[in-house]
Amino acid sequence: MKLLRYGTPGAEKPGILDSNGALRDLSGHVSDIAGDTLSPAGLAKLAAIDPASLPLVPGKQRLGPCVGKVSKFVAVGLNYKDHAGEPDKWPKEPILFDKAVSALSGPFDDVVLPRGAPKPDWEVELGVVIGSRASYVDEANALDHVAGYCVVNDVSDRGWQNERGGQWIKGKSADSFGPTGPWLVTKDEIADVQNLPMFLEVNGVRHQDGNTGNMIFGVAFLVSYLSQFLTLMPGDIIATGTPWGVGVGLTPPQFLKAGDVMRLGIQGLGEQKQTVVANR
């Protein structure tokens, strides 16, 4: 299934794509794509519904973040071999940081440059959406706790991330710095989550062209690893790292500016597109 949320910010309704790619309204069955809806039982209930029986949503709709009521937006740094550098520089354990949940935005919403942010940058990432509570789970059973996957753009300001001291969260958490979606694809539709091509373009120029098979720490390991330190709850999102090609790593470095357009996607999970705008 491809589950999504549509409508005005803060008032999104739950929806599903039918086999023709048309948007159908799920609000007669669930209140949101969140919480218990993401559990194995909740997803089984949705899978039993014939999408053709659901109301067709007319017109062009804004898509919001594909998951609602997110309690944690956790991310992994330097998790791609080409991005992390030579093997002797690879992390021995996952590098973890948070993005504020207030950074979440829709996949086609504008990315708003924060006031004074000197080096805004892009990162296409695989998002893992938790479906059931995970605490001290082992790697062999970790994917049992996953509802599905989505595209995440881990927009980051490198000046605030790397040059202002403290934690990375300050460079990762501005409003609109977490475009997520366009939809949550349930894990049964993904044959091999560790073999998904991904890309990101800025103004039509491709900068990132990678594959989830290049991760240092795979999805199952990350879910298990995180669950040793914190309890993952339904709707939590894990952004699993980005391949080579971010702006700060180019020669010379390239950063986002007002008017730039980003297009990014992951095979089987859809595409996003954002226009960068100045803070208003």
Level-2 CATH architecture: Alpha-Beta Complex
Separation of termini?
Answer: 37 Å
Into which percent range does the helicity of residues fall? 10-25%
Please state the overall shape, judged from the principal axes of the Cα atoms.
Answer: globular
Strand content: 25-35%
State mean pLDDT (0 to 100 scale): 97
What is the CATH top level name?
Alpha Beta
Strand sequence of the main sheet, in spatial order? 3-2-1-13-10-9-16-4-5
Number of strands: 18
Low-confidence segments, given as residue ranges, are none
- At the third CATH level, what is the topology name? Fumarylacetoacetate hydrolase, domain 2
Structural class determined from secondary elements: mainly beta
Task: Provide a descriptive summary of the structure in words.
The chain has 280 residues and is mainly beta. 11% of the residues lie in helices and 29% in strands. It is built from five helices and 18 strands. β2 (13-17) and β3 (23-25) form a beta hairpin. The longest helix is centred in the last third of the chain and has 9 residues, at 219-227. The model has no long low-confidence stretch (mean pLDDT 97).
Short description:
Residues 72-277 form the Fumarylacetoacetase-like C-terminal domain. Helices cover 11% and strands 29% of the residues. It is mostly beta strands and 280 residues long.
